[in-house]
Amino acid sequence: MKLCQVDLLRYGHLSDVALSFPDNVRLHVVHGVNEAGKSTALAAVADALFGFGHRTDFDFLHGAPNLRVGFTLSARDGAVASFVRRKGRRDTLRDVNDQAVPDDFLRRYLGGASRDLFERGFGLDGARLREGGRELLRLGGEVGESLLAGAGLLNLRAALARLDEEAKSLVGDGRGRRRLSDAVDTWRRAQRESEERAVAPRAWQEAETAHAAAVTELATLQGQIRALAKESSRLQRVRRVAPLLAQLAEARESIEQLADAPHLRADAESRFHALTAAQRDAGRDHERETTEVQRLTAERAALPQDAAVIALQDAIDTLVSQRAVALQAIDDLPQVQTNAANLRAKVIDAIRALGLSLEPETARDALPTAAASRMVQRLIRQHAALAADVGSADRAMAAGQRSREQAAQALAGSPEPASPELLRRTIDAARAEGPLDRELSRAQRVVAEAEDTVAAALAALPLWQSDLEHLLVCPLPLQAETEAVAATLESARDRLAAVREGVGNLTTEIANLENEVSRFTRGETVPTSDAVAAARAVRDQVWRAIRRMQEGGVAADSEGEDALPAGHLPDVFETLRDQADRLADRRADEAQRVTDFLSATDRLDRARERRNAAEGALCTAEAAATEAEAVWRALWAPTGLEPLAPPAMSEWRRARAEILRRAEDAADARRLRDDLAARRELAWQNCFLIHLRKLSAPHCFAPRRPAWRTRPRSRSRRCARTPCARRKGGCPNCSGPWMQRLRRWQPGARTGRRRSSRSACPRRPALIPPRRRLRLGRGLRKRVRLGAPTKIASR
User: Fold this and answer.
1) Cα(639)–Cα(474) distance, integer angstroms
2) pTM for this one?
3) E strands present in 52-114
């Protein structure tokens, strides 16, 4: 057998790789770098010739069901055949047309070789070579055995010992029966039995001819049976379908007959059955009612006819309709009679209480009409009210008489009363001014409430520790400038928060990736391409140092002692070589792990790069936010405030505007209060002047013509007509202590204004200051009564 070609379709880490071995070449060498696939190709040849095991280490890339290896074999007789081996439980050997081929078909090519023989004699790898070397060392100088052991026939001494034992059991060792003699005797007996059971050639030919004829006849009979079975099956189908076809034909004829029938609804059948049932029920009801009508007609015809009764038919029907009421009344009659007897006894008692000797029926006729009863009841109520009024009037009259007597006694003991003209004038003057005290009290309450509100709002205003006057003149920045700077600050803060969140997310992602990478490493080196290359570089470095040492040089001259691992260099080289080889082997065995590790490492590197970029952006965003906050503080620096966030400062600005509005309302309320106080002071001053004039100079009082309505005259003319002007030394009242008190009450004395000589006499109308009238609209007066702040305009 000769292997012509191997097609690694899907095997290990190889896909669609072909290895050809031409016939005209006696020796084929397959070479390549580590991890190129040499050991994988050798394992693929073994799996192709002898089948895949239950478990395989080469399904890490393609998966076990998808493993395929193609190969071409050449036999000694020159026959060439191509096959494809797949991973599976059965029918794993296929030809080029993907048809299943039994495994016994390969025996002519393999020559009876087994998988173990192939792996020991032809499929030697590094591990088997090392095992053969150790066997050579163990056997010593026996060259033949050593060569056989090197060829893969290990444990040769054990095999020879087993052959000796088997030879002794075959030919015997003088102790007991030999197995070979037993086998010969058994063969001879079987030979005799074979001769006895042998069949002559003629008999065999006749039996063959008869068998062929029987087979032919059987085939013919089987064909006839199959034809009859088909015919029987057809007839059975015809028998089952014939009634259905007949029904179908009848249905088609019915459909053709009903072709002109109108189209009915889907529920026409159910409605038809329902209506048919209703018609049957109606027919039965009609028959029943007809029978009842006939019976009643016969009964009516049998009844005697009375003309008088027929004439009273309507009255009888009415009484019949009232029959239930009448029956109920008959049942209630004893109770009604008992109630009537009780009521009659009460009526008799009432008549006796009135002092009458009448029967209840007579008293009923003697009852007054409803109008008369209502009139009597009204008169009774009026009498009771008048009686109460008379009692009250008597008591009031007695109290009045006592008061009159007391007043008469007081009047008899009192001096002559003064004229009421002064009191009337005082009352008229007070009425002209209006309810000043009530309005002033209300205005004072409004002022107190407004000031308390302003003080509470000012105390609740954050960031402010000064008074209201400083708040009024506080230099606030412009609204548009504030909004622009606030928008910039908010944008910078939002950008900073977003960048910080991104940095936090990247940090979390990096931590997760680092955990994933550490899970892949598991405390050992992952056999990646870089790790294998690094291990080989260190191995080659030590090898170059060893070569230089063998050539007579010094290793440290070119490489440097610090660059070489510590220890004996040959031992170090062997250790590094083994490590590099193990890494290379593990790279093929752990391909999926290596791929996942490289992917996780790559994602970790990219995440770290993104975090570095994000940290740079974070620094920029922090600088922008710091600059925006500095601009925001500088904007509010003239106010002396430490500004808060823009929304809080907008709310502070609105609170300040509200406080100033309330302060303005409080100022309006104070102005209103001051005006009302001034009016009340003037009113008191006028009343005082009136009383002063009466008490000081009653002879100067002119009741019929008020002094403030007269035209101002010169002092000489008016004083010449008064008795005080004719007195020696003038009027004593005009220069006494009353005059000094009057001057203190005049507005001119308070303000320091210069008064003319005509205002010296208190009797002059000009001495009474003119009254400022506060003209308020109807709505304004209502606001003052409700305590609302109001702007006052005085004329």
Assistant:
1) 6
2) 0.34
3) 68-74, 80-86, 93-94
